[in-house]
Design a protein that fits this description.
By secondary structure, this protein is of the alpha+beta class. Helices cover about 35% and strands about 25% of the residues. It has a 5-stranded mixed β-sheet, sandwiched between helices.
Length: about 150
């Protein structure tokens, strides 16, 4: 298993092959059409805000994670990395995916993050794994749609 930082723009076509499975499993937007905004991701990449990580078996993409990292708007001296998306194909979960999360955290801390925020969905709750890794539950998020 190989864990890497990559450019999201370079891996875009491979990632898009996993999006529908990801959305079906954990998507919370119901009937809203899944259509990731490539231009926005490219702009975030150019500005250095997005950090993108991959998990590969041989050369095949089996997982990805995008994190948004910037100074917190309430605590200027604190750099936060917030999970945008995390997905690992079901057959590659378990110990390998925990190692992937640890790799990502290590890379983010090396890059200047003071705090990492991750979220889980009620559809696929892996909070116990995060708690074992030292994460603490801090907030509950509620969503309302039109």
């Amino acid at each position: 298993m190989k864990f890497s930082r990559e450019l999201i723009s370079t891996a875009w076509n491979e990632i898009s092959g996993l999006w529908h499975g990801h959305n079906e499993e954990v998507g919370t937007f119901g009937s809203h059409k899944l259509e990731p905004n490539k231009e926005m991701y490219e702009q975030l990449e150019k500005s250095g805000v997005i950090h993108f990580f991959t998990m590969r078996h041989d050369s095949m993409l089996v997982g990805y994670c995008s994190m948004l990292m910037f100074p917190h708007h309430h605590y200027r001296g604190t750099v936060c990395a917030n999970q945008d998306a995390l997905y690992v194909l079901p057959e590659w979960r378990g110990f390998a995916s925990v190692k992937f999360l640890r790799f990502i955290d290590s890379e983010l801390f090396k890059s200047g993050a003071d705090k990492i925020t991750r979220q889980v969905t009620v559809k696929k709750d892996f909070s116990r794994t995060l708690e074992r890794m030292g994460y603490e539950a801090k907030e509950v998020v509620y969503t309302r749609s039109v």
